Amino acid sequence: MKTLLKTLSVAILSGGIAVSAFAASTTPANADKAQQRTEHMAKMQAQQAALFQQADANKDGKLSSTEFARFNELKKAAWEAHKQEFEKNRFARLDSNKDGSLSMDELKTAQAKRASFKHHRGNAMKPAL
Prior knowledge:
Helices cover about 80% and strands about 0% of the residues. It is mainly alpha-helical. It folds into two domains: about 1-95, no CATH class; about 95-129. The longest helix has 30 residues, at about 65-95.
C-alpha cells in the first residue's frame, strides 16, 4: 500500500511539473523557438531528401551500399560547407568595428557575451522550486 501511495505521489508531482513545463513553453519567446526548431527540422529533412536523390544513382528509391557511401560523402561535404559558412558569419559578427580583423578587445567582448548567455540560459533551464 505504501509503495502504491509513493508511486501515485510521484506520478501526481510529475504531472504537475509537466504542466508547469508546458505552461512555461507556451510563452511567446518559446513559441518563436519552437517555430524555429520546426523550420530547421523541415530544412534538414529537405536537404537529406535532396542528398538521397542525388546519391540514388539508379533512381530506384533505395540506396545500395555503394550509393549509401556516396550519400555519406555528400552529407560530409554539405556539413563542411555549412561549417565554413558558419565560421565566416561568426567572424563577421565578432568583428564589431568591421575592419576585417579581430582585436583582443573584440574577442574579450564576445567571450563575455557568450559567458553571460550561458549563465542566463543555464538558470532558465533549472526548474523553479
